[in-house]
Amino acid sequence: VELVESGVGLVQPGGSLRLSCAASGFTLSRYVMRWYRQAPGKEREWVATMMSIGGVTDYTDSVESRFTISRDTAKNTVSLQLNSPKPEDPAVYYCNARRGYNEYWGQGTQVTVSS
To answer: Residue 79: enclosing H or E segment and its boundaries?
Structure first.
């Protein structure tokens, strides 16, 4: 049972980047999926959520309208689309799956904004 993240972690200012998280050993759509991020010297913060039922989404204020969380049930993956990155966006991004007492984390992907 694991979550494996993928995606190129370098994005130019004004560009876009897509992070993916693939689940193995469990059905991702039955879990509440979240993305978190942690910048150097800061605590890990919640970024986005997709509920298992109905695919309802929610975002922290700083990424609302710029980031999109989505799910591909056929591929058993969840993704995070990052658009128009801001200076506060570079961080290590983690996907998280939770259902009851079961919780899994991805290994983390470094996102860097650079021209």
So the answer is: strand 77-83
Tokens of 111: 């996102």
Report yes or no: 109 and 19 within 8 Å, Cβ to Cβ: yes
Look at residues 99, 89, 98 and name the one whose alpha carbon lies nearest to residue 19: 89
Cα first-last separation, the chain: 37
The closest of 106, 103, 102, 104 to 94, measured between CA atoms, is: 106
List the structure tokens of 78. Answer: 């969840």
pLDDT digit of tens for each residue in the chain (115 aa)? 999 999 878 888 889 999 999 999 999 999 999 999 999 999 999 999 999 988 899 999 999 999 999 999 999 999 999 999 888 899 999 999 999 999 999 999 999 988 7
